Every structure is written in structure tokens, then in C-alpha cells.
Amino acid sequence: MTRLTIPAEELMNGGHLACPGCAATLVMRYLLKGLGPKTIVAVPACCWAVMSGPFPDTALKVPLYDCAFEATGAVVSGIRAALDARGQRDITVVGFAGDGGTVDIGLQSLSGMLERGTDALYLMYDNEAYMNTGIQRSGATPLGAWTSTTPRGKGDRKKDIMGIVLAHDIPYAATVNVAFPEDFVRKVTKAKGIHGPRFFHALSPCPPGWRYPAEKSIEVARLATESRVFPLYEVEGGRVRITRRVVHPVPVAEYLGAQDRFGRLSEARASEIQATVDARWADLERREKVA
């Protein structure tokens, strides 16, 4: 039997209001396993604002603060300042937002938090659309994906949120995937001990939005990394390190084919996506060697 290396303590209760198969529940669960009970979480309008349950109940065993859609970075900064004023520097403050509240509506607030050097952690759980309001496209929706506002497939590429964040020269940033919990928790535990702004880009497959059976979330998430669509790496002090080196990747078409949201994708567009994935992986390896 393989011994798991993630903490046994659970800081998320059962009884949340997520859809069956929602990977965002695992994102929160693994995050809290890595951070421990001395954590405060700020959540804007997103799926998790509903999933945690109606006030005064919550699915979390740590304090949870609901904030405005665009304000996560500012609210996190305010909580951090208040704790510092009280001398409570051993508490980790977390902004936990979806892709719409990060790459679009909350980008200005996030940028301000990073630019100010706020000593807090920000995690974007990326389900690649505005899932809570009807599966509308976001800036994180990938090229060719169906959404309710791009019924023939999105014609624009996904925003490079890691590139945007790293332009702020922050101490630590990493990608994480619920299909690889040990890698996920290890990175969170490391980030907990780093001072300054830290950022996580978490892949969060969504069964109704991505159009696959609810029991396939981990399989789809694993394909994202094994096809190099969503590589796992960390950037600490400007140094890039790939944490799961995929030597023999599965074809990107296998990942795309596991989701009906790419059902209208042409062979030419699929080949374009494969070429983009290959080029980005080569660039990631180059950056690792340069660092």
C-alpha cells in the first residue's frame, strides 16, 4: 500500500453545496491541509461563495469572509494589515477566487496586492469560465472551448495569468492540480513559510461546464498535465522548476476529446492548440535552464 504524504487533518466539512465531481472542493481541501487551522480565507462572488453554505453556516473550519467580486486583493490586504496591527503574524491570509474574479474582474485588485507586497497567499481555482452564473466565457477560457456565450467555440486564447503575476516579481508562484495532491500540498506548505505575496494557479475541472461525466474529474485533470496543457512548476525567487516532468506526453487531442466542450473543434484548430502547447513547454524548459 502506498503511504500518502498529505496531512490527515480535515479543515473542510462535508455537506458543502458543490456539484457532484466539482474539483474546486478538492482545491480548497488540499489548500487547507497545507496551511493548517491558523488561516483566514476571503472569497469573492464565485462558485465557492455558494458552495460554503448560507450564513452563518460554512463548510470550512477556518474563518471565511465573503467579499465583492472585484475586491479580493484589497480585502486580503486589509485583513493582513489588521492582523499585523494586533501582532497576529502567525495567521495565513488567503484570497481564494475563481478565474473570472482573478483574470478579469479582480485583476486590478490582485495587481495592487502584489505590487504592495502584501504578505498573503492568493489562489485562483481555474474552471475556465463563469460557472456560477451560467457558464459564460472568461479570460481564462481556452481557445476553441464551448461556453454559453461562445456556442461555436471561443476564438481567443487563454490569458497567461502566471506571466501576468510573475511580472510583479513576487517571491513565489506555482501551478497545482487536484490530480496530484502530494505536489499540491508540498507547494502550499513551502509557500506558507515564505514572506510576501504568493500566488497559486490551480486547475479545477468542472463537469457541467466542461461537459464530461462527474466521476471523471481526476482523470480529466490528470490528462491536462500529462498532455502538457497544464504543466506543474514553481517559480521561487525568479527560478523556475518543473515539478512533474512529462517526458512522453499524451496527445493534446486526448485531453480535448475527454470534454464535450471541445466537440466543435476542427482538426486545424486542434493542431494549432497542440503546437501552442509544445511551444510553451519548450519555453518552460528553457526558462528552467536559464534560471
Description:
The chain has 11 helices and 8 strands. By secondary structure, the protein is an alpha/beta fold. It has a single domain, classed as Rossmann fold, CATH 3.40.50. Strands 2-1-3-4-6-5-7-8 form an 8-stranded mixed β-sheet, with helices on both faces. Helix 3 packs parallel to helix 5. The longest helix has 24 residues. The radius of gyration is 18 Å and the shape is globular. The relative contact order is 0.13. The mean pLDDT is 96.
The figure for the number of domains is 1
CATH topology: Rossmann fold
Terminal CA distance: 38 Å
CATH class type = Alpha Beta
Mean pLDDT: 96
Gyration radius, in Å: 18 Å
> Mind telling me the CATH superfamily name?
Thiamin diphosphate (ThDP)-binding fold, Pyr/PP domains
Gross morphology is: globular
| Main β-sheet, spatial strand arrangement | 2-1-3-4-6-5-7-8
Count, helices: 11
How many strand segments? 8
Class by alpha and beta content: alpha/beta
Provide the β-strand percentage band: 5-15%
CATH architecture: 3-Layer(aba) Sandwich
* Poorly predicted segments: none
Order of helices and strands: HEHEHEHHEHEHEHHEEHH
